[in-house]
Fold each of these.
Amino acid sequence: MDARIDLFGNDLAATFGKRFANAAMVIHRSSLPATTQELVSLRASQINGCGFCTDMHTKDAAAAGETQERLNMVAAWREATVFTEAERAALAFAEEGTRLADAHQGVSDETWARVREHYDDDQAAALVCLLALVNAANRMNVIARTPAGGYQAGMFAAMTT
């Protein structure tokens, strides 16, 4: 598949991408567990059909020590026994917050209550911001048809200032 536009090679998009990476760094430095961040990002990317982001979050998670078994089970997390209750709450949140058009009410009160059982105010805020950011990244890459498979773990770390 060929990209419609190289978002990494275009000056305007690259400038935007640097700001985007800086926003992501705020979330990365939060107290929301890094594992949870990658699982949420991966699940949203799977739902949105973003091959580039699915590739990126799978590789970043693996480089951070995530097991292949857990990565394989993200799409079927409800039936998997390898996730904690906190991770399950975050994955439910990721699905409901990503599928806004499918559920006009967005994240259910039940799911939000489960999130709040496991995450404090800063972590809940990080979850909201993370999901907004990953959904935006998914949309940009799907629209641009950014090819998947060439990402190297951590390759965007140098973009932040």
Note: The CA atoms of residues 24 and 133 lie 7 Å apart.
Amino acid sequence: MTYHPKSEFIAVMMERGFLADCTDYQGLDEALSNGVVPAYIGYDATAQSLHVGHLMNIMVLRWLQKTGHKPITLMGGGTTKVGDPSFRSDERPLLGPEQIDANIVGMQQVFAKYLDYSDAPAGAIMLNNAEWLDSLNYLDFLRDIGRHFSVNRMLSFESVKSRLDREQSLSFLEFNYMILQAYDFLELNRRYGCLLQMGGSDQWGNIVNGIDLTRRVLDQEIYGLTTPLLTTSDGRKMGKSANGAVWLNGDMLSPYEFWQFWRNTTDADTGKFLKLFTELPVAECDRLGALAGSEINAAKVILANEVTTLLHGAEAAATAEATAREVFEKGGVGDDLPTLTMTQDELGDGISIVQLIVRAGLAKSGKEAKRLINENGARMNDAPLTDAGLMIDAAALTAPLKLSAGKKRHALVQLG
């Protein structure tokens, strides 16, 4: 793209790799150059924590604020009751109001690490769309808002089409989701002067709907900007690890495991991730990403430290690095490893090593644990583990027991 932006925010988005598409580059760039632009990203409260897959858009909001604009984090207290059908093959399980509220509390903890929610002109605000969606009158809503939507056009959106092409059921409840999201943008513009909605490129259709609706109802010029859907260089969706989702809340994933996730980045992704997930200068990210051989490992440690510092603080990052060094370089135990504490009652007369590997989170099933042992991928106290029938009793746990799966995943088991 040859567009040369005037605003700092668009320049950062382009040079760091955050930009997939924009509804009107010039119009948005002009607005960003002329004053503080309030902009939002919506988050449905489907889990108690955000995960690494959300981190790119959280960084977008952080850069928005750093360049002088006002981030709005919109919690989907209302839309979570419906569920976004975008590119899903099945309907999301519906959550009750108590679970949605609890999830929002968990998610708020993360935003506070990245954004400043002060009264400053660019101070972030957190809103919940239940504020306007819960009290909607259905007939009024159909008459005032529904008449602006063409079903033919809604059916043509890729997120809906892909579901229908596979002949998978799309409920009327889910079909309404894009109307509600469009209405969010209208309400945010009306109440808070919000000029920009951002999101992953899978949200393009929903964002365009909101822009069209706001133009029709309020005659306001507003904008949309999307980020690329992030996959790793080997084609996997960003945010998944061997153990499942990489959560951002420390009580759901320890800072050490979070640090380790970034340290295990593939060589080819290191430069790209430094640009997206840290605030290091772009030239430095490019220099580190271009390192080869064992030197790239130093770049990955910098990546892990920078990302972990933003979320969990510098001390947690330093502790994680020290633990990793102790575990990998010295073969030590490491105080900060994920730890499974067994009671004497749980242990009974003994527990099989296969069960213990599963309980420690190093395998998802007994079958996987047995395969790990049979393929020489398991170690106990740094010695190869070859006997899948081994029983561990209290005597074996007089000192913490270190279990390893491959070279990079470790856990401690202790008697409590």
Note: The radius of gyration is 24 Å.
